Structure formats: C-alpha cells, structure tokens
Amino acid sequence: MLTLIGKRLLFAIPSLIGVVIVTFLLTRALPGDPAAYFAGPAATKEAVDQIRKKLGFDKPLIEQFVRYTNDLAHGDLGTSLTTGQPVAAELRNRLPASAELTLLGLVVSIVIAIPLGVLAATRPGSWIDHLCRVTTTAGVSLPVFFTGLVLVYVFYFRLGWSPAPLGRLDVFYSAPPTVTGFYLIDALIARDFEAFRSAFSQLILPAVTLAIFSLAPIARMTRASMLAVLASDFVRTARASGLSPGKVIVTYAFRNAMLPVITTLSMVFSFLLGANVLVEKVFAWPGIGSYAVEALIASDFAPVQGFVLTMAVMYVLLNLLIDILYGVIDPRVRLEG
Amino acid sequence: MTAQPLLDVSDLTVEFTTRRGIVKAVQHVNISVGKGETVGIVGESGSGKSVTSYAVMRILDRAGRIAEGSVMFSGIDVKAATESQMRDLRGREVSMIFQNPRAALNPIRKVGHQIEDVLRQHVQQAQVTDRGETAIEALEQVKIARPRERYHAYPFELSGGMCQRVVIALALACNPQLLIADEPTTGLDVTTQKAVMDLIVELTRRRAMSTILITHDLGLAAAYCDRVVVMEKGRVVETAKSADIFAAPQHDYTKKLMRATPRIGVSLRDLLPEEEALSSASPRARGEADVRSAAGEGDSPHTVLADTAPHPNPLRASEQTQPLLLVEKLVKEYPRQGAGSVLTRLFGRKPPVEEEIFRAVDGISFSIDHGESVGLVGESGCGKSTTSMMVMRLLDQTSGRIVFDGEDVGGIMPQSFARLPRRSQIQMVFQDPTDSLNPRFTAARAIADPIMQLGDIRGRDALRDRCEELARLVGLPVNLLDRFPHQLSGGQKARVGIARAIALHPKLVILDEPTAALDVSVQAVVLNLLQDLKQSMGMSYLFVSHDLNVVRLLCDRVIVMRSGRIVEQGTSEHVLGNPQDAYTRELLTAIPHPPLPVA
Q1: Where would I find the ABC transmembrane type-1 domain in this sequence (chain A) (predicted)?
Q2: Which residues in B lie closer than 8 A to residue A237 (C-beta atoms)?
C-alpha cells in the first residue's frame, strides 16, 4: 500500500512541474501591468518603471522563472501586491475556510442524495423516483448565488434564525486556537462550545447552498449505478438464493454501486473547492476562490500562481485518496499496484 | 415417478409489459419434475426456457408476471405465496445456478462470505456453530482444492470452472430439493464442462435431488437428463424420455434442432433442414434463394455462386509452391503481473532481476496453403487467440516469423501495416456478431467500412452497389442493409460481419469462433455459407474454435494447441478420427455425444 502511495506521488511530480510552468506563462501573458496597477492611476511613467524594476518584472522571462522556482523550492510562494501579505500564509488561512465549507456542504449533500438515489433506483417510476428527479433538476438549475440569496433572505432577513452572513464567526467570538484550521473541529478541541455553535450557524447556510447544487450529480450517479448493479447477474443470484431484500440491496448492490459514486464525489469536491466564488461572495466567506478571483482581476501574479498550484496539489492528493478508497471497496483494483 | 411430482408447472403463461405492449414470453407450458428426476429443457434463444425457470423461482424482473396457470412446488402454490414465503423457498428448497458463473458472483465479496450469506439466511442460528466451517465444507464438496484458502478468494481470482463450482456450492449449501441449472456450462471449455456436469450429477444423485437442466445443447441434455422438454417460441413442442426423443423425435422443430447439431459422421450440408440441403446442392437455385431470403427472416439462403468480381489472385499459379501463410517459431511473451513496474523501468534504477515471463505462445510453427482451411483448437488460455491476433498484426510477436504471401509481415509495425495494401488480404470475423459491429453504423456502412479504408471503389453509388452485391453473396436481404445492428437477428449480424470481412477479396480470413454466440440452427446455416464462400472466392481460413465438431466439418487440417504449444496437427479426419496425443483424446471424449441417429 505504501509503495502504491509513493509511486502515485512520484507520478504526480511531472504534472505539477507542468502546472508551475503553464501558470507562470499564463499569468505573464495576461493583459494588464501589475506595476501600473500597484503604482496607482496617478503615478508617473518613471514611478511605474521604478516599481517594475523593484518587483523584478523588467528582467527577461527566463530569469523571472528561475527566481520564481527557486523561491518555490524554498516554500516561498511570493507576496501579494494587493494585500502585502505572503501568499503562503494567506492560502494557509483561507484554504481551511473553503475546505470546511465544501466538506460540510458535501456531507449534507451525501446524506440526502445517496439515500434518495438508492430509493429511486429500487423503486423506479414511483413517487420517490419522481421526487429525486425533480429535486436534482431544481438543484442544478438554480444558480448558487440565487439559492444563497434566497436562503439569506428567508432565514436571516425574514425569520431571523441565522446570523448575518458575514464570514466564519460572529464578531463577538474569537477564533479558536488553530489546530486543523477547521473552526468546528478547533472549537471542539478547545471545548469552546459557544464558538462551535456560532461557527456552525455561520456555516450552515452556505453549506446548504452548496449541497443543493451538488445534490444532482451525486443522486443521479447513485441512481444510475444502482440500477445497473441491480440488473446484474450476481444480484439475481443473491435473490435466487433467498437473501433478504436488505442484504441484497446493501451488501450486494450498494457496495458495488459505490465505485462510480465515489469518483463523482471527488470531482464534485474539487470542483466546489475552487469554484464556489459566488457562494463565498454572497456569504462574505474568506475562502480561496474569492481570493484568487480578486488577485486575478488585479493582475496580482503571485496569489494566482499560488492558488493554481495549491489546487493542483489538492487534486493529486484527492485522486490518491479516491484510489485508495477504491482499493478498499474493490479488491480487483488492489492488484494493479 | 412418484404419484405427486415435486414440481408441477401447469398451463403457465408469463407476460412481459414492454413499450410495444404485452409480450407473452411463455404460453401454456406444462412441465412436471418428479423426486430425484433430471429434466432437461431444450430450446434456442427466445424459446422461453429461462423465463419458465425464473417464474418457478418467482424472480422475474419487474416487467414480467405470471399471467395464467399455476406453479406448485411440493404442495406450495408459488403464484400465491407471499414474498417472505418465497424467500424461504429460494435457496433452501429450490436453488439455481446460472450461465456465466463469474458474473453470477458478487465481484467484491469473498466467495466464502457469499456462501455464508446464504447459510445465515436459511439455517437456524442454533444449528450451526461455525458457519465458516460449513462454508469450507461446502467448497470441499464441490471438489475445490485447498478450500480453506479459496474461502478468502474473490471471484476474479478464480477460473471460470472454479467460479461455477462456487456457484454450485452456494446453491447446494442448504440442501435444496430442486436444483435449476440454467445453461450451467455455456462458455466453459469442454473438459471443464464435463467436470462441472459430472459434479452436478454426482452431488444431486447423492442427495436424491431433482434437477432441471436448461440448455441449448441437445448433446448435453441427452447425456444427463431422464426426460427432455423441447421448447420453441414460448411453447412446449415435445416432452419425452431422452432415449425416446433422440431415437424418434416427433415434432418438426425437434428434428430440425437435431439435424443442425454438429456431430460425427455428417457433412455440413446434413446440418440444414432437408429441403434447403437439396436446394443448395443445385447452385442454380440462387434466384429463388434470394426471393426466399427477402421474404423470410433471412436465415435460409446459403446458396452462393461464383463471385462476379474478378478474383484478385493472378499470381496463383506461381504461388502454389509456397504456402499462403507460414508461421515459424512464433513466440509471444508477457511479463508476469507486478514483475517490473513502469517506474523502475523508467528510471532504470533496479536492473530487471530475472523478470518473470509468461509465454502465451511458445514457439509454434504451421502453414496454411492457398484455399485451405485450418482449424486452430484448444481450451481457453491455450494461446489460440493470441496467435490469431499476431497473424492479424494486432499484437507484436516476441520472436519468430510470420510470412504472408511471400513477405515477412511480422517485422512491420502494426501502425504502418494497417495502411499497407497487403493488409486488405487478411481479414477477420469476430466471435460476437453483436459486439463487433458499431451500433451507430448501418449494415451497409459496416460492410463498406473496409472498402472506404483500403479499397479502390469511390463514389456513393458504386459503394452501394458493392455492398448490395456483397449482401447477396452472404445471403443478407438487401432491404436490411439500412438497418442498425440492434434491428437485426443474430444470424443476420453474423452475415454482416462476414460480408465486411470478404469485402476486399482477402486471401486469408481469420474466423475467431464466428458461430459461438449463435443458435445451432443459425450456426448450421452460417457454417454452410462460409464453406460456399471459400469455394467460390478461393479464400483460406484460419478457424479458431473450441468446438471440435464444428472444426471437423469446416476444416481440412486441424492444429491442437495447449499451453502455447502445438500438441498435434494433421488432417481433420486423422487428428479427430485417430488422435495421437493424449490431450486431443481427452478433448474428444469430453464432448457429450447424443445418441443421434439421423433419419
């Protein structure tokens, strides 16, 4: 197992190198001059040139690249021009916020979508099948900023059940000491149940917004894959040997049907992690998606490069995790180490 | 037979609700099975034999239901029983074994656990102290070597025959009274088939169980059943003791089936129904054959005349001296799983430490002459498919020579070989007529495909004319050319595959079990068609098959392979009539021989 993990990580290195090169070139190819942006609209040409020189943007591309990779090798992702903070530190703060939100959203989504998909598959054409279809279609066709705004309007503005959508914690609480970066877990570790409650109530609306959106692919995939497995020969054998319906559906059908569902989960997760800028905007969530978009608008190279690289690493790790999970569920995969 | 049969199916009708309305898959079927009796249900695909057995178990899918009649199993009305009563019946009183054993087992669950699942469901807690031991015992009874180890195996780690033994163990774990075996040996090698059938018989006899054997193979039914029920299109056409039915078949359909079954001492023509065998003797009957084929399902014409297109073998006379295909010391090696990883080879860190090698084909030599058909037989894993793939240049050989028509093609890269004009001289007909056709191509498009790639016919009309000509040649009604594969029958799809293969006037056609997926009556027609085409077009065949009876009929010479080596080769009569090698003899004796006196 360890050799498998090591091998997979080794194989990821070339693609990471590729990501570094491509993002570096792409950011350089973008229109917009970071020096001009940084100097401000009133700056003279000399001032802009001076800043450009200071930032090293006057050097040839290859030299810039060598310096960038050298910094990268020392764990330095550069400094953001707009905030003046080191990119690595900002990503470290913001990534857990995005990850916590996405994970909770995904958990909510799984808890609803998988049973829904299984029930829909075992009773095709029944009311629950139609419910599944309607929910998933509605969920995927409503844009997240819209569902987010509706939720805020109903639960904050109308009903007043949830706190103001302003970040990860109510202003009256201080963040729990950082262990994992996930406020919910950190608060539990610190036994600060008030902070936990506050963090949770801030988290629930954006998480539900994400869940509604990600319901569709998961439920649909569960249903389709369950239908395929239920029609397979070994399920017929199980039924012909008189096993109880529960046993047939859970042990025989569901475990086999999980394989494509897990793949879908990983895709949905990595997609949501970087792409839920709109949700982060609506709920003033300090995540990495909004960070990257703001940096991109400002032609701020370092954060964009840092963001893309982080996402690439996340992708590699996630895929590895999925492959390990696959191996746990499906013994046939284990051989191909 | 006892006064009250164990299973009594009377007047059974099963309906399926489909998009095109209600379809009656089984109509007014009467079958009874006495205690300890073995009854065979024989019929071709679509005869309703499997549906009947599913109705007995009440495991029809959602769309199917028992519309009329009754199924009584030892006093229990299966039609009226509750679902939980049925669940107690299944596995404990009636159990079933299926075709394709590998798919019939849960791929991600240890086989031992799957047997335990059944035990847990049916056996009282108190009765069994250790279910694991019972499961191992069940594996032992089906003669699985090292049952204690195999208990922890997953289905993909076992061979097909082994998987079928596990399925049998699963079915017999709770000592049922009735075993339904649905094509239990289809897809298994003949020797495995014999072992599995003997095992079933031995186990059921010892337990005084009743058995229903569902099969398309008359020989198998005759060899193992007390009584045989013949079904056609959802109806029972004949029921009799197996000795009687083979000695004196009453119904026309039974006679037709028996005629079509390949066996010793008959020629290809004998397989066809009498009136067609006569018509094929006079090849001038082509016009009528076409009319008939257009009117009927298209499974009748096999009459093929000389190809109107010129034969592409002007060099024939000079070539007579050398064989068309010469294979010398052909070897194909595969590295064993996990021997050297890609990475270690990539970085070259570890020198390959005695890389373990599996020889799929181990230095074989043979030749095929012009106009000759050679059978390549052996059981699965013997390397016969690998050999045919290498001759097709779909695989690279490790060493050895493949000389085709005077040129060493073995050294040519597969990519460039695909574009050589010589490529058109070797064509292939694949095993599964359905899977080998692109579902999005019409029959005409499929047939035209090789011509468009390598042929010299250009222009829509010319191409269409050629397709129609080829369709007539293989007896495919021209009006079916615009249909898609799913709209064609198995026999028609096989014809499309053959028409595609002969579209470029190849000199050598490799036939990879072309009739394995077909019913016997269709197989008889297709085999005759192949024979006629060979004669009229002067082609050579390399016929890859595991069915010795079919090889005997079609091939001039036979090559018997085992574990990558040739154990015996020679003329068909010689090898199959008077085998020298022990393995060939074993293969021949494993074929179930029906007592078939053909009138």
Answers
A1: 95-326
A2: 96, 98, 104-106, 167, 170
Q: Strand order in B7-18's β-sheet?
A: B21-33, B7-18, B64-73, B76-77
**Looking at the predicted structure, is the pLDDT value of residue B304 above 80?**
no
A331: nearest CA partner in chain B: B108
**DSSP sequence for B442-454:** -HHHHHHHHHHHH
Contacts of residue B363, defined as CB under 8 A and 6 or more positions apart, other chains included, come to B329, B330, B331, B400, B565
Closest CA to B242 of B10, B26, B37: B37
Q: What is the pLDDT of residue A114?
A: 92
Best of B19, B85, B106, B123 to mutate (most A CBs within 10 Å, chain A): B106
- For the full predicted model, state whether its pTM sits above 0.80: no
Q: Which segment, A5-14, A125-134, B129-138, B245-254, is predicted with the most confidence on average?
A: A125-134
Chain centre to alpha carbon of residue B139:
27
- Among chain A residues, CA nearest to B115: A241
Query: The tokens of B1 are what?
Result: 């037979």
**A85-93: long-range pairs with CB below 8 Å, 24+:** A87/A302, A87/A303, A87/A305, A87/A306, A88/A306, A90/A291, A90/A303, A91/A288, A91/A291, A91/A303, A91/A306, A91/A307, A91/A310, A92/A181, A93/A181, A93/A286
Query: Which of A7, A59, A30 lies closest to A308, judged by CA?
Result: A30
Q: Which residue has the higher pLDDT, B227 or A80?
A: B227
Which residue of A234, A332, A334 to mutate against B (max B Cβ within 10 Å)?
A234
The token pair at B298 is 């298209």
**Chain segment B431-486, per-residue pLDDT in tens:** 888 888 998 999 999 999 888 888 877 888 889 999 999 998 888 888 888 888 88
Rounded Cα gap, residues B287 and B456, in angstroms: 29
Q: What per-residue confidence (pLDDT) applies to B496? A: 92
Cβ density class A46-56: b for 16+ within 10 Å, e for less = eebeebbeebe
Burial class (CB in 10 A: 0-12, 13-18, 19+), B327: buried
Using CB atoms, pick whichever of A232, A242, A255 lies closest to residue B89: A242
Report the pLDDT value the prediction gives residue B124, as an integer from 0 to 100. Answer: 66
Calculate the dihedral angle through the C-alpha atoms of A72, A76, A77, A81, rounding to the nearest 10 degrees. Answer: -140
> What domains can you pick out in chain A, each with its CATH number?
1-74 (no CATH), 93-334 (1.10.3720.10)
Query: Phi and psi at residue B207, in whole multiples of 5°?
Result: -95, 5
- Give the nearest chain B residue to A9 (CA atoms): B343
Residue A239 contacts B where some CB pair is shorter than 8 Å: yes
Contact of A329 with B108, CB cutoff 8 Å: yes
From residue A310, how far is each of A5, A212, A280, A289 by CA, in Å?
Answer: 19, 26, 18, 11
Sort out which chain A residues have CB atoms less than 8 A from B62's CB and list them: 124
Interface of B with A in 29-58 (CB under 8 A): 57
CA separation, residue A63 to residues A66, A282, B146 (Å): 5, 41, 67
Per the CB < 8 Å rule, is A240 touching B87? no
Q: Given an 8 Å threshold on Cβ–Cβ distance, is A124 in contact with B338? A: no
> What whole-number distance in Å separates Cα of residue B250 and Cα of residue B228?
13
**B92 contact A CB<8A:** yes
Burial A265-293 (b: 16+ CB within 10 A, else e): bbebbbebbbebbbbbbbbebbbbbbbbb
Q: Which residue has the tokens 């609209």?
A: A41
Could you list the beta-strand ranges (E) of B233-323.
235-241
Residues within 8 A of B (CB atoms), A 202-231 only? 231
